[in-house]
Amino acid sequence: MFIDDTIAAIATAPGEGGIGIIRISGSNSLKVAEEIFKAVSGKKISEYNSRTLVYGNIFDGEKRIDEVLVAYMEGPRSYTGEDVIEINCHGGFISVKKILELILTKDVRLAEAGEFTKRAFLNGRIDLSQAEAVIDVIKSKTDKAQEVAQNQLEGSLANKIKSLRLKVTEVLAQLEVSIDFSDEDVEDVTYKEIEEKSLELREEIKKLYDSAESGKILRDGLKTVIIGKPNVGKSSLLNSILGENRAIVTEIAGTTRDVIEEFVNIKGIPLKIVDTAGIRETEDIVEKIGVQKSKESIDSADLVIIVLDSSKPLTDEDLEILESAKSKKTIVLLNKIDLDQAIDETAIEEFVGKDNIIKISALKNEGIEQIHDKIESMVFAGDVKSSSNLVITNSRHKDALFKAYNSINDAIDGIEQRLPYDFIEVDFKNIWDYLGYINGDTVQEDLLDTIFSNFCIGK
């Protein structure tokens, strides 16, 4: 499906830079480029091989606009699957703007957000999961996130979905034959064969679905909240993790009165670290608001880091903090190990496992690496480090897999109850549709518009 009109947009970020790129895609791309571009060699762009950079100038009539390099990529072997022209001019606001305005006077319209990638999908060059991976590559916050996104862009998820849908097709074909040519003598054999395939399919779908939690963290970051009483070393811990003095550290209780948020990369995991006000009873109206925010931040946290002063016995406030984070992934840090110990570790183990208790000295930067290792093990549990790097990072994909998983469970229940093949067929057709929702085979046009509207104009 090739789109009739030709589109153009600036593909580089606005502002000053060495190079600015204007991209044109559509059947008139080459014609438009040859109208406004004159090569120093005197040749036309079409006289060069496709994908050759041609040096020359952009002209508006007799007026030269800029010195440029032009590349022509003949469809369907291009990003969009159509004829594509890319003009490399000097970076900055004026040159790229003038060239784009000139192009838009030549029966070319301004591209919509994500339209270049949308055309790549509509023209069959990539599937929808690969198209969505483009935005993940652009927005990656860590090397690991970029690696997973790049893996999906190259087709790892697309190929897996194709494989799963092929297995569903095989079961549907077997059900169709059984419906059309029913034979009581082979019914038990048929049910058994379908059940074996269904159990295998369910396991594969579940494995993909289970990777979504780690995938979401890689894509959006892990919201990590540091909580504890005043003066236990929360701000010192934040400074140690960040490697800079971001938070004010004093011996005065209540120094941190508001929530401080910072982004940090720990072993490939993007963490949005929130340093909160010390939790205690106070009459100070400003500090009281900060304490309330601290308590609220626990509810929205993916990971809670509780900091306790190991040189002092546990208090009721400490126990209240431990209780408030009981339902969360929690790490307890026993800070100030450079001082004499007075804390009761056994009481803490009633709230968190012994393995989740780490002794540190935030002031002397001791034990910080252990925190990094623990965060990595808690988030990934080893599965993201596999060589496949096939991880679900998109909530839309997760939802589709959840529905496919429910349908395969319904199908297995029907097989075990020896329901008529027609009933089981309905469930497998649902699985087919839900998996197709991921790669775009069964997606609706209005959803496509929503997905691609999150892209930048030039992509």
TrEMBL record:
Mg(2+) binds at residues 235, 256. HAMAP family: GTPase_MnmE (MF_00379). GTP binds at residues 231-236, 250-256, 275-278. One of its GO terms (molecular function) is identical protein binding. Its main location: cytoplasm. GO terms for cellular component: cytosol. It is found in: Cytoplasm. This is tRNA modification GTPase MnmE. (6S)-5-formyl-5,6,7,8-tetrahydrofolate binds at residues 23, 86, 125, 459. Keywords: Cytoplasm, GTP-binding, Hydrolase, Magnesium, Metal-binding, Nucleotide-binding, Potassium, tRNA processing. Binds 1 potassium ion per subunit. Homodimer. Heterotetramer of two MnmE and two MnmG subunits. GO terms for biological process: tRNA methylation; tRNA wobble uridine modification. K(+) binds at residues 231, 250, 252, 255. Pfam families: MMR_HSR1 (PF01926), MnmE_helical (PF12631), TrmE_N (PF10396). Residues 221-380 form the TrmE-type G domain. InterPro entries: G_TrmE (IPR031168), GTP-bd (IPR006073), GTP-bd_TrmE_N (IPR018948), GTPase_MnmE (IPR004520), MnmE_dom2 (IPR027368), MnmE_helical (IPR025867), P-loop_NTPase (IPR027417), Small_GTP-bd (IPR005225). Its EC number is 3.6.-.-. Exhibits a very high intrinsic GTPase hydrolysis rate. Involved in the addition of a carboxymethylaminomethyl (cmnm) group at the wobble position (U34) of certain tRNAs, forming tRNA-cmnm(5)s(2)U34. Signal peptide: none annotated. Belongs to the TRAFAC class TrmE-Era-EngA-EngB-Septin-like GTPase superfamily. TrmE GTPase family. Its cofactor is K(+). SUPFAM superfamilies: P-loop containing nucleoside triphosphate hydrolases (SSF52540).
